[in-house]
Amino acid sequence: MTTTISKIGKYNFTAEAVHCDIKQNLFISTLCHHILRAADLHSTERNFGMNYLKTLNKTWVLSRFALEIFQMPKAYDNFSIETWVENVMKNFTARNFAILNQAEQTLGFCRSIWSMIDTETRHPIDLFSVHNGEIVNYITPEKDCPIAGFSNWKTNSNTKCTKQIQILYSDCDSNGHLNSVKYIDHVLDLWDLDFHKTFHVCRMEIAYQAECYFGDTLLIYSTEIPTENANTKEFRIQICKLLASENTEIEVSKLKVCFIKQ
Amino acid sequence: MTTTISKIGKYNFTAEAVHCDIKQNLFISTLCHHILRAADLHSTERNFGMNYLKTLNKTWVLSRFALEIFQMPKAYDNFSIETWVENVMKNFTARNFAILNQAEQTLGFCRSIWSMIDTETRHPIDLFSVHNGEIVNYITPEKDCPIAGFSNWKTNSNTKCTKQIQILYSDCDSNGHLNSVKYIDHVLDLWDLDFHKTFHVCRMEIAYQAECYFGDTLLIYSTEIPTENANTKEFRIQICKLLASENTEIEVSKLKVCFIKQ
């Protein structure tokens, strides 16, 4: 018996009160956890999930992430996340997401770029080599993701370090790396509660460039970019890892965070 | 039509890979989030949940929490949490929990003590005044929770401060207080990854004594207590809030954390 599985996956979540911020909005980092969970459920159902890849000594690595959110789920709201594969190349795949409320209205969209690596050599894997390249059967170019793609921007090397943090036990994922979502918590912690009461994240872009591990010291640089609209704010954030032995630092990630007054 | 609702609630969860630590175990803090979620679901179904209480300007406040865990759910494990009311007094109620794996084997138990307060005056509420004291209909003394009750211990005033932290945006719940579960993350972050690879939390007790807010500076004091068994470790943790204006500090919470080598 052959079962046809749909190209688009849709998963239900609840904005639990314990995961809501001072505005009763779901934390952006929790939303991103759910987005990554939707990606894993979708890929697992189609035989290329993290847990299966582990048996092949392979894993997915998140490379780029862009989220635009028009309205955050509020405490106790039910919502769903749709996800689909936009396209696949030899070393990268683009996966998109739509966040919908219970009335099926769109709350936001998300784009992501993933590579697959060999967990021993840390080298990229040819995506077409897994399950005879069956991933291409799920490409869904006809499904629209109407938010801007990934932008390129230079980080400002003249900015003064805004904050220094050390990677602790609760920051680390099951591979001992800084959890992809923890970057978001640490960056949004740059602003105080009054700022967060006034401004909401409307777009966030993250470029993950190098892995960080337990004990690493991270330096966070933040630069505000002037905007034309008084109700918006834009920040470019650079996260660097201190290489104490070489008395230098390397960029491990950069983010662009746009806020809107509401 | 009268619907009889059972006294014991049972809720299903999955140990999501994104919430698992270096040992592939669910983070204790995530388990505690699920435990609090189970409490809220159980009380909501019986008309005394947080969301309903908000309409009355009342809320539950967690006062004591004790968890004993024999085996943590691993990444991708399904598990369930049972919860029931052990007893109710005028100003306090005791709620217990059992954590079960898919084969219905017990993974751990949890005890908790709650009070209800008026969110404006912050004064305690008579629990029998809500819904004509219907909460007593759900008291389940016959259900066993075979772990030790809450202990009393003195904090050691001679201990040197182990760590200083500041309460940031991601630490705060929807009331602007330090989230009950975040205490656990901050305390477990006292130990490094190698320690956590070797030792598992087997029992944790928390006494919540005073509320903490965004911007507060917390001082964490940790004292190791000698144990008779070389495979166990016990720590007593005191969390104090710095009152800079008075150049003093007050105890806001204390924890007892027991680890076992596995």
**Content of β-strand of chain A:** 35-45%
Q: How would a textbook summarize the main sheet of chain A? A: 10 strands, antiparallel
Annotation, overall tally of beta strands of chain A: 10
Task: State the end-to-end CA separation of chain A.
Answer: 53 Å
Instruction: Please identify the structural class of chain A as seen in this structure.
Output: mainly beta
Q: The CATH topology of the largest domain in chain A is what?
A: Thiol Ester Dehydrase, Chain A
One letter per element, helices H and strands E, the order of chain A comes to EHHEEEEEHHEEEE
Fraction of helical residues of chain A: 10-25%
Question: For the largest beta sheet of chain A, what order do the strands appear in spatially?
Answer: 1-3-4-5-2-7-10-9-8-6
Largest interface, chains and sizes: A-B, 38 and 38 residues
Quaternary structure type: homodimer
Arithmetic mean of pLDDT of chain A: 94
Q: According to CATH, what is the class of the largest domain in chain A?
A: Alpha Beta
Cα radius of gyration of chain A in angstroms: 19 Å
Total count of helical runs of at least 4 residues of chain A = 4
Low-confidence stretches of chain A: none
Summarize the structure.
2 copies of one chain form a homodimer. Chain A has 262 residues and is mainly beta. Chain A contains 4 helices and 10 strands, in the order E-H-H-E-E-E-E-E-H-H-E-E-E-E.
Kindly describe this structure:
Two copies of one chain form a homodimer. In chain A, 14% of the residues lie in helices and 39% in strands. The first copy, chain A, folds into two domains: 9-138, Thiol Ester Dehydrase, Chain A; 161-261, Hotdog Thioesterase (Thiol Ester Dehydrase, Chain A). Chain A has four helices and ten strands. In chain A, strands 1-3-4-5-2-7-10-9-8-6 form a ten-stranded antiparallel sheet. With 262 residues, chain A is mainly β. Chain A has helices at 28-45, 50-55, 182-188, 193-198; strands at residues 9-14, 58-69, 78-88, 93-101, 106-118, 161-166, 199-208, 217-225, 232-243, 248-261. The radius of gyration of chain A is 19 Å and the shape is globular. At the A-B interface, helix 1 of A face helix 1 of B.
